[in-house]
Amino acid sequence: MTKDTLLNPPGLQPSAITESSKTTTTLPSHQARLDSRHNLITNTSGLAPGYLQANLLILPARYSQDFHQLCLRNPVACPLLGISRQPGNPYHMQPSGCITTPEDFDIRTDCPLYRVYQHGKPIATHQKNLLPFWPDPRHTPSPQHEDTERAEEYVSFLNGCSYSFESALTAATLTPRHQITGCLVPMYRTTIPLLPAGIFTGARTVVSMRPYPAHAVERVRAVTRPFLATHGEPVDWGWEALARLGIADLQAPDFGEPVPVEEGEVPVFWVRMFLVCVFVTLFPRGKGNVWGMWGLHGLGKFVCGSGWGFSC
Question: Which has more confidence, 242 or 57?
Answer without folding.
Answer: 242
